[in-house]
What we know:
319 residues
Amino acid sequence: MKNLKIATAQFENKSGDKSYNLSVIEKLSQKASLEGCDVISFHECSITGYTFARNLSKEQMLDFAELIPNGESTQKLIEIAKKNNIVILAGLFEKDKNDNLFKAYVCVDKNGLVAKYRKLHPFINPYLTPGNEYCIFEIDGWKCGILICYDNNIIENVRATKLLGADIIFMPHVTMCTPSTRPGAGFVSSQLWENRETDPTPLRLEFDGMKGRDWLMKWLPARAYDNAIYAIFSNPIGMDDDQLKNGCSMIIDPFGDIVAECRSFEDSFATAILTPEKCVKAGGSRYIKARRPVLYKNIIGQDHQSEQNVVWLNIDEKS
């Protein structure tokens, strides 16, 4: 495997405005290509917007969702990738020929669709169908995987993707700045975002505290460290429907170190050069080899009824 230069992006998407969001994706992809990047990764539902979908009916979702790869948005991504000779990863709502709905994330290059992944634990709209398989694909010889937002909070998903061969896991999110049972969690006032140019300090304190980045640091580096992977975390900045998001798009190496991070309030990206040596030298690589599955295969694989509770969504519905 050769070294790979990856950009992780963040921008303020417009809910339901695919044309606008694709125009931002095109602008940032072109800029990343000019800076020598091989790949650029965008956040969950970066093409469509995300949080607004909690209020859509099934008919509205079907009207808005697209077939993959023949839908207009995926074809536009392929066009952008070809024009700029860069691999692009971005998210949207998908429908199939039987009117099933999915939260999808695609990887495209100049030749077409490279990979498609469906979120295993969707929740933003009740008509979404969970995906039922992991996704492994290659970019320039690197084995890659995708896990969308909540999928990464179930640690078995990250380990399974690693065991299937991934040294890079793309982790697109729309997260942070929502209520939770954890201390310090909560929404961040949109007024702070409106005043970001004249009074940025209060906004940065909220974004970096327990409502945002401090919470992320409790678990995200561990996913990379434990599994000896590069974690490519992408998250929007600014308003997503009526919720404010804090960005912090970052790349974490197999040692659990942040090697690139977006710290601007603007539409932007951060880049890092990925080297295959780190995947071997990192401690997680040794720990994976030391596993003794006979001790716990029947524990991890025992019957279990999945229960998914999203606290902020329940709070939002009752308010």
